[in-house]
Amino acid sequence: MQKNFIMNNEKEIENVVDYIIKNISKRSVVLLKGGLGSGKTTFVKHFSSRFDINTVSSPSYNIIHIYNNKIVISHIDFYRLHTDAEIKELNFYENIEESDYTFIEWPGNIEKSLRHYKTACIEFDIVNNKHTAKVII
Ligand SMILES: Nc1ncnc2c1ncn2[C@@H]1O[C@H](COP(=O)(O)OP(=O)(O)O)[C@@H](O)[C@H]1O
Ligand SMILES: [Mg+2]
């Protein structure tokens, strides 16, 4: 299933959050694709604020942020990460299993290791100066 959204303002971002909450089950892993500045981290901020998690920041430097409030959300950025050993050190798979939702920016090579999990994908882009999102479930 694939659905395209324009999400150029807060209300339009909230529409995509609604769609994700309605259409993916808990324990899902959501792959966030798209270039720098395409809106990946902003989307996770909006999603998380639905569950009164208002402290989301980019995980680029720490690789993984775990938020635990009404639910558990893991937010991961694999931009700088390469080896299996590094991934193992993060307790990556244990984390997925303990999270209600896992969001992964720059999933790259890890994607093929996720076939045992329920995954969804959001492709972010900027087209004619408008932020867009294609949700693939
Ligand atoms: N849907 C959107 N509509 C308008 N501006 C956005 C949207 N998403 C992100 N931005 C703006 O673009 C900038 C980069 O967004 P960010 O979410 O950090 O991108 P990414 O995580 O993909 O690198 C931020 O300043 C943010 O305010
Ligand atoms: Mg980001």
What does this structure look like?
This protein is α/β, with parallel strands linked by helices. The chain has one domain: Rossmann fold. The protein has 4 helices and 7 strands; from the N terminus they run βαβαββααβββ. The chain has helices at residues 10-23, 40-49, 84-89, 92-98, and strands at residues 2-6, 28-33, 64-68, 72-77, 101-105, 119-127, 130-136. The protein has a 7-stranded mixed β-sheet with strand order 1-7-6-2-5-4-3, sandwiched between helices. The longest helix is centred in the N-terminal third of the chain and has 14 residues, at 10-23. It binds adenosine-5'-diphosphate and magnesium ion. The site of adenosine-5'-diphosphate has 13 residues, from helix 2.
Q: How would the blueprint of this fold be written?
A:
Elements: E1 2-6, H1 10-23, E2 28-33, H2 40-49, E3 64-68, E4 72-77, H3 84-89, H4 92-98, E5 101-105, E6 119-127, E7 130-136
Parallel strand pairs: 2-5, 2-6, 4-5
Antiparallel strand pairs: 1-7, 3-4, 6-7
Bound molecules: adenosine-5'-diphosphate and magnesium ion.
Adenosine-5'-diphosphate (ADP) binds near residues 13 and 38.
Summarize the structure.
With 137 residues, this protein is of the alpha/beta class.
Give the biggest beta sheet. Answer: 7 strands, mixed
Q: Which segments are poorly predicted (pLDDT under 50) over 5 or more consecutive residues?
A: none
Question: Helix- and strand-based class?
Answer: alpha/beta
Proportion in β-strands: 25-35%
The first-to-last residue Cα distance is: 5 Å
User: Total strand count, please?
Assistant: 7
Strand line-up across the major sheet: 1-7-6-2-5-4-3
Domain count: 1
- The name of the CATH superfamily reads P-loop containing nucleotide triphosphate hydrolases
CATH class: Alpha Beta
Query: Which overall shape is indicated by the principal axes computed on the Cα atoms?
Result: globular
Mean pLDDT: 94
State the share of residues found in helices, binned by percent. Answer: 25-40%
Count of runs of 4 or more consecutive helical residues: 4
Q: Any idea what the CATH architecture is? A: 3-Layer(aba) Sandwich
Q: Which value, in Å, is the CA radius of gyration?
A: 14 Å
What small-molecule ligands were found?
Answer: adenosine-5'-diphosphate, magnesium ion
